[in-house]
UniProtKB/TrEMBL annotation:
<dbReference type="GO" id="GO:0050664">
    <property type="term" value="F:oxidoreductase activity, acting on NAD(P)H, oxygen as acceptor"/>
</dbReference>
<dbReference type="InterPro" id="IPR002347">
    <property type="entry name" value="SDR_fam"/>
</dbReference>
<keyword id="KW-0560">Oxidoreductase</keyword>
<protein>
    <submittedName>
        <fullName>SDR family NAD(P)-dependent oxidoreductase</fullName>
    </submittedName>
</protein>
<dbReference type="Pfam" id="PF00106">
    <property type="entry name" value="adh_short"/>
</dbReference>
<dbReference type="InterPro" id="IPR036291">
    <property type="entry name" value="NAD(P)-bd_dom_sf"/>
</dbReference>
<comment type="similarity">
    <text>Belongs to the short-chain dehydrogenases/reductases (SDR) family.</text>
</comment>
């Protein structure tokens, strides 16, 4: 669907970072916005900004809470109308060295990055199916969900979001529901600070584990407003994967070649 005027979008992590960039891009196209975020101060600021452009409601939300998700959905649809654009964008960028992984950090990483997406899908997609008018779902993953690095927590969570999205696209087509998965490279956001604020001291990158390099790369990344426009363009093209830059292209090619070469041992010799 590309007739944006009057559509209703629900955006998790919508008060800051990539979510705010998406909200700005949608708002200027006449989309009515429901912003959900765990940061109530950021919600107030984003709501005040975007209300000058379009209709906006805000809801404090921890995406791990299923009942809270359902309550927010009910309230939004009562205020703005049926949600037909869903952006499961809230996420964190956790890191714990392999020797220090624990169940607690696994629960945090998967709870927000994976279960938060599942909760969004399970809250809104059945409503889209019941209405029979289609819709669009965009899930935010990462380039690390296409090619794994050494950050086991993050790669695991983002691979899950990519797989969920690819499968959902196939299943949703029957109901007129389009799906894209956003796989950004570095984007200039406060994700590292936000992650640490939720981490209760567990996910600190120790000296020598790349914290300074990661922070510098993120600070120099693509701007959130540019990402918002990239997402809209990807949706208009009904792209399965939406990239913010060419950062992962070489590595995806290398991974594809390795996967294909893994079949060679099973090919018959002539």
């Amino acid at each position: 669907m590309t007739d944006w005027q009057g559509s209703v979008a629900f955006i998790t992590g919508g008060a800051q970072g990539i979510g705010l960039g998406i909200a700005r891009a949608l708002g200027k196209r006449g989309v009515r916005l429901a912003l959900a975020d765990i940061d109530e101060a950021a919600l107030a600021t984003a709501g005040a900004e975007l209300s000058a452009t379009t209709d906006v409601v805000t809801h404090p939300l921890d995406v791990r809470g299923r009942d809270a998700f359902a309550a927010a959905a009910d309230a939004v649809e009562a205020d703005l109308g049926p949600v037909n654009l869903l952006f499961n964008n809230a996420g964190i960028a956790p890191y714990t060295s392999l020797s220090k992984l624990s169940y607690e950090v696994w629960d945090l990483a998967l709870g927000i990055n994976v279960h938060g997406v599942v909760n969004g899908v399970q809250t809104f997609v059945p409503r889209m199916i019941e209405r029979g008018q289609g819709g669009y779902v965009v899930n935010t993953a990462s380039g690390a969900g296409l090619v794994a690095g050494s950050n086991v927590l993050y790669s695991t969570s983002k691979y899950a979001v990519v797989g969920l999205s690819e499968s959902l696209k196939v299943a949703g087509a029957k109901y007129g529901i389009d799906v894209s998965v956003l796989c950004p490279g570095y984007v200039s956001t406060g994700i590292l600070g936000n992650t640490q604020a939720l981490a209760d001291g567990h996910l600190v990158r120790e000296p020598g584990e790349g914290s300074e390099e990661s922070a510098a790369a993120i600070a120099q990344g693509v701007g959130i407003d540019e990402v918002g426009e990239i997402v809209i363009a990807g949706m208009e093209a009904k792209a399965t994967w939406i990239h913010t830059d060419l950062m992962m292209k070489k590595y995806i090619g290398m991974r594809g070649d390795m996967l294909l070469s893994s079949f060679s041992a099973h090919e018959p010799t002539l």
